[in-house]
Amino acid sequence: MRIASLLASATEMVCALGLEPELVAISHECDYPARVLDRPRVSRARIDPAGLSSGAIDAAVRDAMERFGGMYELDEVALRTAAPDLILAQELCEVCAVPTSLARQAASVLERRPTILSLDAHTIEDILTSMVRIGAAAGVRARAEQVAGALRERLRAVRRAVAGRPRPRVLALEWLDPVFAPGHWVPEMVELAGGECLVGTVAGRSMVVEWSRLEALNPDVLLVIPCGYGLGRSRVEADAHAADLGAVAARAIGSGRAWIADASAYFNRSGPRVVDGVEILGRLLHPTLFPGTDLAGRAEPWLPSPGRTG
Predict the structure, then answer these.
(1) pLDDT surpassing 50 at residue 310
(2) What is the residue-wise DSSP string for 244-308?
(3) Domains of the chain
(4) What does pTM read for this prediction?
């Protein structure tokens, strides 16, 4: 079985299932695990976000969608060389990763038509089901059921630990210009970790909201998790919008309960590390219950520089 993964989360799932020897191609955005990053990359983005502010990135994305009808293009030559039997794609978001429609178009040029498996996860259970679907398509369904079962048990352990505890009110934001409330599995992650997600709907779409709408919320906890950003870039974005964050989350910031995180690895991506994200949230929301959860390189407190919140 020769597998081409067109999204980072699917690459992580393939490796979690022990299928990396079958992985013959990956997408431009795949960055984990390190042991498969030497595979040929068969996609590329139409914009280069390096050095752009979040507002400029949002504008560039909208422009690319209007001009080209999509954010990405496939390298058909590289895909033909990889000759996959199975292509993993997604239909959740045309901005987040290569969509299934483009994968089908590219597959039509291959001499041997591959199977295209489209993953469409909106909840954590959908993510785990996607892992089983990959395993079934690759002939290792029993192994995939075991891996998914172990991840479910970790989630149950978090749920048991926070049961009956007070639930901090959490403002989670996954983009800051414009400001986006989280959707899909992120509100569910907050709830599983023992919090109350103040904006965003489980299994719903991420939505643009106005800063003015958030001003009355006064959350106990602020979580800044810009989509696709690691820990360092999340801090840059929080610092750039310190005044707005200070206006909507003064209590959380003042009590030392404002956090930034490696959003790309543990929150935005529909892969197995979402379970790590729930455990990280458990530590942030209920630190005495999860003292052993490692935050190093994953999440850090955020405080605005003096004078940045006025």
Answers:
(1) no
(2) HHHHH-HHHHHTT-EEEE-HIIIIIS-STTHHHHHHHHHHHH-TTT-TT---TTTEEE--PPTTS
(3) 3-120 (3.40.50.1980), 163-301 (3.40.50.1980)
(4) 0.92
